[in-house]
DNA sequence: AATTGTATGTCAACCGGTTGATATAAAATA
DNA sequence: TATTTTATATCAACCGGTTGACATACAATT
């Protein structure tokens, strides 16, 4: 049967209070007693039941992560780094892939709250979900504007949009298109499109932003991208809002007979590890994904500890010069 | 303050036993009482404390996943699909990225056991870690041979290795190299290399297997791959044990002046979603990743329910014809 | 009218670990 | 010698929800 603290106490010849003191390194304890208790634990293969302690301590050492999916280079790298840093800081991670579905996100949120997570790091849909406000839970957001209570970590999206657009213009592109997700999704990533429009205006160029929804499947995306090429046959430059879509744009252009970058210059956004290995030719705006994770974890731990934290933290981007511009 | 079942009972004007009966849909209950209780829960924004119930029920509805990392197309897709199916089956997922480090894996295992997970799905290091045996926890393994107690799900690695090698031979390659991870890692993936050797022998060709460790960083991998090109200058075909490494081989070959596939034919293994988008030109042996996840979740749930399950389940692979052969 | 079913309450114990209050005894210190 | 510190035990309550046993009252059925 499952070994309990009483069993350890009996074998060690001490009280369960003493075993608890050894487990928690609390109170006066002789070296002899400590050794006897450890020997008993090892002998019985005792594994303390964290659930009992969580109930009493009102602290689970669990953190919930809600992101669209880890089946994606950007989110995969982000979640991997978040998990690593949280674990190194004594937390375990409960993960929810919400697929940007508000109902699914709300279900996850309720489940995580019910499981008494100590905090949340989220980067998913942000349609008004009341539990974010009512639960009094420390939350940190990545690339999503939730409300003024919830700190946001993001890359310098505006600067990234600016760099991308200027790079295309300086490389001779004259008809530059931008793609973005749905604008009702409140995210700092919208600043990429804003920067694109600003830079275009300052060069007396007409901006065009094409919506490609993150959640569309590959086939739908390919159809929409084909339509984009039909709709803008003069397009000779494109700033794509993420690398996966940039890759699709690239493949579609090649199929249509375009030469990259002679006929069409392409800039993406993300620069994740996997993308770097699988498609290093793609010129892209590189987000500091590992740094975003590091800052998010530090901010969450500060929130859990009740410290003052900044409302927004914007981390610098870089240009990765591939061969698509 | 935090709302408890007593608070809901007081507002609804019933006993906490009645609230518990409503929560669990147990015993006789009138519609009026059910409504009163639900209204009170909503009014107070009551969120049941799962920890208390977990302690009593000795069931957490949590499943632990231990994989090397989700910052990788194959594991990212696998973990995303596992999480989705587990959540749809009423479980939440605690994730541990072990980076193939046995000590880290053991730490994760202990933590997950302590957190009373109902089961585990693992696909990481498998060096003898005693807790897999002693904890009496339902475990399912993906692509790892643990012991005869633990069921294994994998793709048909032998068939994959056979298909890859035959494809290279049938395309005219005469000097074919294979890469694999460290052979002391007990994994069905070693059958890829076995199949390669068997097919080569049957064509009177000398097999060469080059070890590339999954955990080496990009720089070390690139160095080792460069050395491989120096050591086998006559190489005109290569079967790479995973797509990320295949991409690195491709880039290195191009840098060295090879034309793909004229001078060097390349076959990878995995065929993950992200790889398909970012490098569709890569010819690869496509694992049924989503099916592996589906079977693993079904097997784990069967184990949790004490049902008889098969010791090994091998799922069919396919060839993805890119342009690298 | 008697019996059975429905509805809800009371009570207390439990799940496993934590911990404060208090007690006792021995060792160390002033 | 008196006081303080160290070491360990006992006891019981707690954390929040679950649930069985039993009670009471009313409604439905035989």
Short synopsis of the structure:
2 copies of one chain form a homodimer. Chain A has 325 residues and is of the alpha/beta class.
**What percent of residues of chain A adopt helix (DSSP H or I)?**
40-55%
Q: What is the H/E order of chain A?
A: HHHHEHEHEHEEHEHEHEHEHEHEE
Number of helices of chain A: 13
- The outline of chain A comes out as elongated
What key phrases describe this protein's structure?
alpha/beta; homodimer; 3 domains; Rossmann fold; 434 Repressor (Amino-terminal Domain); 325 residues; 6-stranded mixed β-sheet; 6-stranded parallel β-sheet
What does this structure look like?
The structure is a homodimer of 325-residue chains. The mean pLDDT of chain A is 94. In chain A, α1 packs across α2, α8 runs parallel beside α9 and α10 packs across α11. Chain A has three domains: 44 residues, lambda repressor-like DNA-binding domains (434 Repressor (Amino-terminal Domain), Orthogonal Bundle), CATH 1.10.260.40; 123 residues, Response regulator (Rossmann fold, 3-Layer(aba) Sandwich); 131 residues, Response regulator (Rossmann fold, 3-Layer(aba) Sandwich). Chain A has 13 helices and twelve strands. Chain A starts with a helix and ends in a 5-residue tail after the last strand. In chain A, the strands form two sheets. In chain A, strands 2-1-3-4-5-11 form a six-stranded parallel beta sheet, sandwiched between helices. With 325 residues, chain A is of the alpha/beta class. The longest helix of chain A is centred in the N-terminal third of the chain and has 16 residues. Chain A is 46% helix and 16% strand. The radius of gyration of chain A is 25 Å and the shape is elongated. At the A-B interface, α4, α5, β2, α6 and α11 of A face α4, α5, β2, α6 and α11 of B. β2 of chain A pairs antiparallel with β2 of chain B, so a sheet runs across the interface. Chain A binds a DNA duplex (30 and 30 nucleotides) through α2 and α4.
